[in-house]
Structure formats: structure tokens, C-alpha cells
Amino acid sequence: MDLGLRGKVALVVASSTGLGFAAARQLAQEGAKVVLSARSTETLARAAAKLKQELGQETAVLAIPCDVTDSAQIDHLVAETVAAFGGLDILITNAGGPPGGTFDTTNLDAWRSAIDLTLMSVVHLVKAALPHLRQSETPAILTITSVSVKQPIAGLLLSNVLRPGVVGLTKTLALELAPENIRVNSILPGWTATDRVDHIFEYRAEVNGTAVETERAKITNSIPMGRMARPEEFANVAAFLVSPAASYVTGVMMQVDGGSYVGLL
Length: 265
Ligand code: NAD
What we know:
By secondary structure, the protein is α/β, with parallel strands linked by helices. The protein folds into 2 domains: 9-190 and 230-254, Rossmann fold (3-Layer(aba) Sandwich); 191-228, no CATH class. It is 47% helix and 12% strand. The chain has helices spanning 18-29, 41-55, 71-85, 108-133, 157-177, 195-208, 212-220, 231-242; strands at 9-12, 33-36, 61-63, 90-93, 140-144, 183-189, 253-256. A 7-stranded parallel beta sheet has the order 3-2-1-4-5-6-7, with helices on both faces. Helix 1 crosses helix 8, helix 3 (71-85) packs parallel to helix 4 (108-133) and helix 6 (195-208) crosses helix 7.
């Protein structure tokens, strides 16, 4: 199936590593013009070089630094994307996860920072991107959230509270923008083998006095498919959802979790 992504302009936020990078890579492979973004110029340059090395030096990829907690930087990111590639067809929102903790261990400053990182970043990105998406023939927005919006994860209070806000925003935007043919969906990833997840297992092993592999096994044993996702498995779904091939799919919150969520709906 041709996804119809060739020549489309895609802005993938927080994409120097992990899920964001995998989505950007898949879109570039499908022939989209891709903007990579993250805070660190050096990490971004490495990510862009890696992508070109893998897919060919002629790959249309641009790296623009942006901290998603700063709305002025977001405005600049979107303006630079449009200036470089002549428009915007696809926006994928993403950010690093907020810090872990329980209600007792989370202070008000951490709450405010997490609201900016996880929720307001998406609000600012959509506000900045919408005027340009409205000019596209095949506009699409994808938010990256977590399967925790269906089933909260112990010790991840801020994520458990704020990601459902992003899902509420995603669904509301899908309804409000459907008459304009702008599709808005979310992916709810389960455990996916990114570097960040490796660091989580290293941390747990240290805290629990166990081996990293023991901590990894605790998670993989709890997943019906018996393993974590590969980032490419997430990216395949992301590329489809933002592509013209998914032209009648909007307002969908799609788990990519190997069957981890066990509720009926
Ligand atoms: P990751 O740490 O590999 O990637 C995070 C990306 O966000 C990096 O490119 C980083 O540079 C960038 N980033 C962080 N803070 C930023 C900021 N303020 N401004 C701009 N860029 C910023 O993590 P990942 O595993 O790819 O996860 C991505 C998101 O998905 C996170 O929010 C994570 O909590 C969530 N998630 C991950 C999994 C998983 O198993 N990997 C599962 C569910 C949800």
C-alpha cells in the first residue's frame, strides 16, 4: 500500500531519540520531508546525520532546536519549518516524560513544570501549526501519549494525570477540526525498547539491588506478547495514522502495547 507520504512536510517534535526519532525515520523513508527537533543542537545534529547515513544523503531532513516548554521557541520552530519546506502537512507532538513520583513526593513546582512539558506544549504546538495545516490538502496531527491513560502506572502520578488531558485535547480537536478535514489522533505506546527504557531498568536494578535483566524480565513477563515493542513497530503505526492512507481515521486513541491493556474498550 502506498501511504501517500511522498513530498509531505512533517514536523516531529522531541525526535532526537526514541519514539520521536523512529517516527521521523519512518516518515523520511516513506518520502516525506522531515523536521527533527529537540533541545540540544549536538544531539539533533547526530540524529540528522544518522538518518541521512541510513536513508541516503539526499534525504530531506532538517534539524531545528526547540524546547517545547517555551512557546516562543515553538513559534520559531514552526515558522522555520514552513520557511524551509514551503508548508506543513503533519504535526507529531512529543516530549520527554515528566518525572516519576507519588502525590506525597511531588511538590507544586514539579506539577507546574509537568503541566508545561506534557500538556501546554501540545497546546502551543497545535496553536502554532494550525494556520499552516489549514493550507494543507492532507493535514494530520498525532499526539504521543501512553497506555497509562487507560490504566494508570504506579509511581507515575504526573504522567497519569496530565496525559489524559492530552487525550481530551486530541479528541476535542478531532471533533472541532473534522469539518475542515484536519485529522487528529493519538498513539498510546506501551513498553517500547528505547534508550530511556534501558535507563529505567538500570535505575530499578540499582534501587532494588537486582540485575538489569531481572528488572527487564519483570516487565516483559507482564506483557501478553512477551516482549517490548521495537520503536519501528510504534513508528509504522504513527506513519500510517498521519498518512493520506488513513484519510477517514480521526479521533482514535490507538494502543501499540502488545496487548498490555486488558480492559474491554
Ligand atoms: P526518549 O527519552 O528516548 O525521547 C524523548 C525525546 O524528547 C528526546 O528526543 C529528548 O531530547 C526530547 N525532549 C525531552 N524534553 C524535551 C523538551 N523540553 N523539549 C524538546 N524536546 C525534549 O523517550 P521515549 O522512550 O522516546 O518516549 C517519548 C515519550 O513517550 C515520553 O514522553 C515517554 O514518557 C512516552 N512513552 C514512552 C514509552 C516507552 O516505553 N518508551 C511508553 C509510553 C509513553
